[in-house]
Amino acid sequence: MANVSHEASTQEVIRFRVEGMDCPGCATKIETAVSRIAGVSDVSANVTAGTVIVTPTVSRPANHTIVEAIRGLGYGVISDQEQRERQANPTASRWWQTAKGRLVLASGLLLVIAVVLEWLLPVLGRWPFVVATLVGLVPIAKAAWQSLRLGNVFTIEALMSVAALGALLIDAAAEAAVVVFLFAVGELLEGVASSRARRSISALADLTPSTARLLDSGEVRDVAADSLVPGDRVVVRPGDRMPCDGSILEGASSLDESPVSGESVPCEKRPGDDVFAGTVNLGAVLTVEVTRSATDNTIARIIRLVEEAQDAKAPVARFIDRFARYYMPAVVGVAVLVAIVPPWVVGLAWSESVYRALALLLIACPCALVISTPAAIAAGLSSGARRGLLIKGGAVLEMLGTLKIVALDKTGTLTEGTPQVTDICGFSVSDDEVLRLAAALERDSSHPIATAIVDRAGEETVDVPAVQEAHALSEHGVGGRVEGRDLRLISPQMAKEILRSHAVISERLTQLESAGKSVTVLLDGEQPIGAIAVRDEPREDAGEGLAALSRLGLRVVMLTGDNPRTAAAIGGALGIETHAGLLPEDKARRIDEWQAAGRGPIGKVGDGINDAPALAAADVGIAMGGGTDVALETADAALLRNRVGGIAELVGLSRATLRNVKTNVALALGFKAIFLVTTMLGITGMWIAVMADTGATVLVTLNAMRLLAYRFETTAS
Length: 717
Description:
Layout: E1 14-19, H1 24-35, E2 40-46, E3 51-56, H2 63-72, E4 76-78, H3 80-88, H4 99-120, H5 127-149, H6 156-169, H7 173-205, E5 211-216, E6 219-224, E7 233-236, E8 246-250, E9 253-256, H8 258-261, E10 267-269, E11 274-275, E12 280-281, E13 286-290, H9 298-311, H10 315-345, H11 350-364, H12 367-386, E14 389-391, H13 394-400, E15 405-408, H14 410-414, E16 420-426, H15 431-442, H16 448-459, E17 468-473, E18 477-482, E19 485-490, H17 496-499, H18 503-514, E20 518-524, E21 527-535, H19 542-551, E22 555-559, H20 564-574, E23 577-579, H21 584-596, E24 602-606, H22 612-617, E25 620-624, H23 629-633, E26 637-639, H24 645-680, H25 686-705
Parallel strand pairs: 15-22, 15-24, 22-23, 24-25, 25-26
Antiparallel strand pairs: 1-3, 1-4, 2-3, 5-6, 5-7, 7-13, 8-11, 8-13, 9-10, 9-12, 14-26, 16-21, 17-18, 18-19, 19-20, 20-21
Helix pairs in contact: 4-5, 4-7, 5-6, 5-7, 6-7, 6-11, 7-9, 7-12, 7-25, 9-12, 10-11, 10-12, 11-24, 11-25, 12-24, 12-25, 13-24, 15-16, 19-24, 24-25
């Protein structure tokens, strides 16, 4: 949309899944290395998703060239085939089986041996600690050298290497060994925390079964679900997950769609209804025709949108990145001054001043600060996706929490989108008789009012008689012969002359029309015998959803192209400010006027098609589309559950995420500020510095992960 749009690139991108990328420093190293490859236009590494997205130029680089560059930095690259095999045959990877886990065990063992040798053989002096330091430092120094070759000077590995070697030079070998061990532990904890966040996305992929029961020439056989193509037919038994997006050919059942939409109430499905991959068949056997390939089904599109959304940084995240680029060199400069100035000014021993400077270097790394925002944003996006709330990027997630006005379309957004019979009035016959005769006249019509009348007759199991000589009348009406009577079903306007002599009936019809209802009059010859009123009624959850928005402090308005009388009736019933009779461009102009008057930011909710101009004009466009392509791809956010209450859930999630970001930034900066001061004063040493840095990183990551358990309540936050 206009101000926070998720712009789809017109260029083809190459996506890689990377193992071992657990911190912002890892992402920076990979981005720097890959960006230097000829033919690469842009590269974005996503720590939480574990992906690297490369945008090539016209002279596209070979995939293996990119893979080699990433693996050269010490990271693993997983192919799509390997990813599918892991999903089909998941194996639990223990922490001690990882490279970081092995480094922790080796460093810890060497440190213990050094302590024991110092006690048993004091004649060895500090050498056991020197050996423990150097052995544990090898992989760290190797990573630092790889980054240095790419021009990345201020990495945590580089600072760690300088600090450890410097400690050895000033005869602080024991502390150097402890620092190397604590650093390894911190790296391991970061990896565990990142893996937990990554599983929130991969869990979505696990919703789709690995196999499907393909119906082929009357025989059923098991095939890989990702081999299904549009046109295939599959059999889905009770209790099975739907292996594809498709349409029901045979059978009727209730489906649990909560994995896709978050809706806890099962949905009744019949032949012709659409079904989505990952949903659970609760009732009878279904035969389903595949309508989308595995790479384009609902689950795959949701995963793709969530991962792409995590790449779209929020403004606060971009600010933190810029801040970190200046902050780290500044602290390194301060560390140099701490090493040089005190011995000259206050006569501090050189060994002590250098020690303080080395500890300061370890404090300098802004890992906790840099990851504080993207970790929270990623967790918020993932939490929303599991609830059926698709948000296209951190910028959108951030903007949602600042909205002041929410403008909603009427038809299909606040209302069901289809007319329903609201009143049946029998004048000289019973209400049931009016419905029975009207349904006979409308049985073969596809007009929305006719459909509403026939559906109501079906709901009440009315015995609808046959009609002869059925014909359409000019100006909205039908006629025919039913059970020997010449009947017409026409508008009050067409029956104006006949109704002049029926004041009571005319008054009743006027009351119905004043309530925004469309009325048809049933005539037997020239005698009015009944009337039926229909209206597109508000959604069941509309009132509660609007009340939740009001509790959040938002001004809620209706922008509709419907006539003012109908709009006023619906608006009055829902207690919402109404602007009616608007063309699509009028809705956009109204939003522009509010923005110019400083009443924004403004969110616009619609179906994503006829509201396109208004969705584009708004600060955030929200589509209610029930999982359609339009809902997923045309707006900044989409509500898969098609519930008005979902709008308040979006705003509540955004505000909770922003609170989490602020808490994380405060924790990261607070730790840095405290230990920068205590280190400069000589109160805390190097091992405390390492614990402060890695501890803060783990703490903000775990705090962000709390959003994965966010409770969606449409109440004020």
